[in-house]
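Escalated from tier 1: nicotinamide-adenine-dinucleotide holo job.
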Amino acid sequence: MVRILVADAMSEEGLAPLLADPTIEVVQKKVVDVEDELDQFDALLVRSATKVTEQLLQKMKNLKIVGRAGVGVDNIDVDAATRYGVVVINAPNGNTISTAEHTFAMMASLVRRIPQAHISVKSREWNRSAFVGVELFGKHLGIIGFGRIGSEVAKRARAFGMHVHVYDPFLTKARAEKIGVDVCTLDELLAQADIITVHTPLTKETKGLLGPKNLAKTKKGVYLINCARGGIIDEQALISFLENGHVAGVALDVFEQEPPGDHPLLSFDNVIVTPHLGASTVEAQVNVATQVAQEVLTFLQGKPVTSSINLPTLSKDVYEKIQAFYTLARKMGIVASQYMSEPVQEIAITYSGSVADLETTFITRSLLAGFLKPRVASTVNEVNAAMIAKERGIAFSEKFSANGNDYNNSITLTVYGENKTFTMKGTHIAHYGDRIVHFNGFAIDFAPEGHLLYIQHHDKPGMIGKVGNILGDHQVNIATMQVGRQEVGGKAIMMLSLDKPLDDTLVETLEQISDIDVVKKLEV
Ligand SMILES: NC(=O)c1ccc[n+]([C@@H]2O[C@H](COP(=O)([O-])OP(=O)(O)OC[C@H]3O[C@@H](n4cnc5c(N)ncnc54)[C@H](O)[C@@H]3O)[C@@H](O)[C@H]2O)c1
Ligand SMILES: O=C(O)CC[C@@H](O)C(=O)O
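Tier 2 regenerated the structure:
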């Protein structure tokens, strides 16, 4: 039974696919209420309240996936999750419209002083002259961060007759032209905008983006809005610019610390606030919970997820095309790691023929995970394989060749060790399966599966018999046997597939046979 912990409040309607699955147990409790069972969950679903720290990940030893029902993953230690091999996914667009609408509601409220007027009337006052606002029509709106939410805000602003200026260092010209906005530098935006709204993630670069230096470049009387993440507008700087009257008003849905407690910003009459409500609509909550539940279900069924933060994303279509090579690569990694039972410095992978045209990042990660698995104590999978390889000083590279040589497709793996180099080539043949067609310099043809025994020897009559006798004497049945040699009387190999794993003592016995140079058991 798969166990999923839903640690923050989430729409039941959205969670329905998980709740309806008889193979899944969904526990809807806060982390503190399941401290004793944390190591028993396969998946963790959160919104922004639960902090997925390294400490929590350490306790959740069985965890495979964290699903964030929302966009921002700043409450999740993604680096730690990656190290522990835990996939992190989010629901990137389920709350876009709600947040854009909330931003607009905040903008209108800010310039028309609706919250202040509301409080006044509720206090039995009727002071119309105290709440004279300004129109949005004709005003210059600066949008910092022109992704999903920023571009929806722009559409609404244009409908209101505003001039829209956007700053986003990652925005392509073609996309900006398509949407028809004025793309400018940050300095230009700061100088022109009557109202500035931020829609970036909180990163090293965006933390304090609107700090003392940049706030000083804005127009006197500017309005500021943050419905993205607390900290993009530096709160201390904001207080100074409100105190000196430079900033006319601020709308905040988010804070550096949430809840903000008795924050000095809350005492300004021209600061309006909401408690992180951007995504709090019925529709958005159903959307994000549905997206994340569906993705977790897909992942638990062993299929690729499309909104992963720490894995290359794959469409179903692409996944179907790479699936066979993904499996072949994993097996090749496992075999190579056992053959090269020594420290290695580099793994070079060459994709040839039809596989060279596919998305190979995932295939390479699969190969690395297979290679590292017998070598590391911790979980290793596609999420953390590249990172673990790097940590262990193993460089890896990919090369591509349109020419598949004798095969429609092939993966060639070269492992550079301290004392030797090992090469193998594998191919996937439709309706036939995975085959290793070159091994350690020998042409051969075997399936990389089950209990394999590799023997390198001198090409002499009777060698096969000697090996067969010893195995037979020890009740080890040979299922298949492939042989290869470089030249008559030269070096030769046997690859045997056995019906059961071989004892180490039997490996030692085989090593004693004269004219046998190498004996390796390989478990796939
Ligand atoms: N208040 C809420 O409840 C709520 C709801 C949803 C999203 N959000 C937040 O809104 C923000 C935007 O979400 P989104 O879905 O539009 O994300 P997105 O990824 O679609 O867009 C973010 C944009 O910011 C741009 N960007 C990154 N670094 C930048 C920089 N240094 N300067 C300028 N632009 C930069 C990116 O290029 C991207 O286009 C996120 O922080 C998200 O967490 C808040
Ligand atoms: O969970 C929420 O309500 C907030 C979501 C929002 O901050 C996000 O980044 O998607």
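DSSP finds 16 helices and 22 strands in the chain.
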